[in-house]
Write a structure and sequence with these properties.
single chain, 42% helix, two-stranded antiparallel sheet, mainly alpha
């Protein structure tokens, strides 16, 4: 279960991998956006149709 670390409010249900991944970004859209920019701009990313859990 995903929740806001500041308020404790439940945001929704995520798989363990996604929930842990989001937690590593400290609920910060800025940090998450920088990570996304890094991945998109390195020129080697392929996008699978399905993400494995």
């Amino acid at each position: 279960m995903d929740h806001c670390h500041s308020s404790g409010k439940v945001r929704g249900l995520l798989c363990v991998t996604c929930n842990t991944g989001l937690g590593k970004f400290q609920d910060s859209p800025k940090i998450l956006r920088r990570a996304l920019d890094y991945i998109l701009n390195d020129g080697c990313m392929t996008f699978p149709d399905k993400v494995d859990d």
